Amino acid sequence: MARSVAVPIELGRYGALPLVLCGFMGVGKSTVGRRLANRLERPFVDLDHRLEEQFGTSISALFQAGREAEFRSAEAAELQRLLAEHPPMVVALGGGAVEDAATRELLHERAFTIHIDQRFDDLIPALNRLRATRPLLAARSNEEIHALYLRRRANYLFANLTVTIARAGVARATRDVVTAINAFVEKDPR
Questions:
Q1: Could you list the residue range(s) of the whole structural domain that residue 112 is in?
Q2: By C-alpha distance, which of 21, 10, 3 is closest to 98?
Q3: Which phi and psi angles does 62 have, rounded to 5°?
Q4: How does strand 112-117 pair with strand 44-46?
Q5: Is residue 48, in this structure, part of any structural domain at all?
Q6: d(CA 139, CA 121)
Q7: Does residue 41 lie in a domain region?
Q8: Residue 44 lies in a domain
Q9: 89: which of 1, 21, 70, 80 is 20 to 30 A away, CA to CA?
Q10: Mean pLDDT per segment of 10 residues, for the chain of length 190 residues?
Q11: 112-117 and 90-92: which strand pairing?
């Protein structure tokens, strides 16, 4: 069986910027982000995991304790710190990180942001697996989660690039993101 050849990533004028992935819970930002970072030979930061280390507890525990506002403030501050360092890295954001307008503006100014999108119906199996660990999912019906998905999706539109992925696995999702980056940079080579 022939092994597929990895498509090279051409970032053009965006090469010095942090590459930031946003999107709804369960779309694969962290998994695809790790693969992109490896391909680009850049450090990878999962912002949610970094914040869990700083708080010494899970995001789920923070939300259950009524500390979502404190978490969101720390999330914005940590992202600002990361982008101020400005090394070429890959960052996976939590699903709600871009609900804050100031965060979207910061990303617009200091990063190349990719919205990883997936049809809601395709996301349901992943969301069902996440219900036990995500307080925003645990007590909500699929209709309520869909409303959250639509509300957040509107906030992802600021991204430089939106890549809609199929439910075909991580390798395919990563390849789709790389192909979309290359097509974007080819059209905007400045």
A1: 16-178
A2: 21
A3: -60, -45
A4: unpaired
A5: yes
A6: 19
A7: yes
A8: yes
A9: 70
A10: 54 84 94 92 94 93 91 95 87 94 94 94 90 82 93 94 83 87 78
A11: unpaired
